[in-house]
Amino acid sequence: MTALPPLDQINALTSQGISFLSTLNELLDAEHLALQQRDITQLQSLVEQKTATLQQLEENNQARNQLFSAANITPNKAGLLNYQSQLSESQALSFKTLWSELEQILHQVNDKNKRNEIIITRNSRNLEQLMSIIRGQNQKNTLYNQSGNKGNYAAQNSLGKA
After folding, report:
1. How many domains does the chain have?
2. 146 in a domain, yes or no?
3. What would the pLDDT profile of 119-129 be if each residue is shown by its tens digit?
4. Which of 81, 87, 95, 112 gives a 20 to 30 Å CA spacing to 14?
């Protein structure tokens, strides 16, 4: 039987992951505010900060997964429950508490990311409609070209009449 990875290392990496996700959570709130205010400079700064935080989070996840893999523990729900069952009661409680906190903040980050994505998509669609109006394109004349991008059917139609 493979020895269990040291709980202190796992808990330290989990706490660090919680910290990274908390930072990401705050950045997503700031991004939401910047999107509402249409502050491009702030958005660019936030994207850089989010990228750096996501890289740190990825490294943290890889380190935690390597720790589990070295002990032949699959880093999924079933594997973690199995690992938890092999711990003493106090160790299992500390592991479960941190892991639950990690899952909870991950759900918050996912929800806030979806919220911001909806705002970005809506703003992009509105900008596209405004640009069509400025260009004098009728929305009914928009078709998709071979690459799946929107094309202007009106130009093809007028060439066909000539």
Report:
1. 1
2. no
3. 989 888 888 88
4. 112
